[in-house]
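Let us work through a complete example step by step.
Step 1: write down the sequence.
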Amino acid sequence: MTPSFFNIYKPRKYDYRYIYYDPLKEAIKEREKQMAKENGEQPQQEYKPNLHRGSFREEANRMRGKKSKELRRSNRNVLIILIILLIIAYYLLK
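Step 2: predict the structure and record it as tokens.
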């Protein structure tokens, strides 16, 4: 190894090897699609979940509103009970 000023090292190429690749399975799937086309059947579409950008935030905001509504209701109930107890205490101590 002789040092060289003009030797520029090139980065290594990305070489990803699939772990679970099965060429036979891929060939079977492709053949099934081809046969379905020949028979005029509709190909099955993949499942797409009903998630869209911002859905998590929308759900979090909705839950936050629900919690604050429950908290207001709870505070109102505590206030009503406190008023009733004060009225009862006033009549008992009178």
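Step 3: interpret the result. The CA atoms of residues 58 and 64 lie 10 Å apart.
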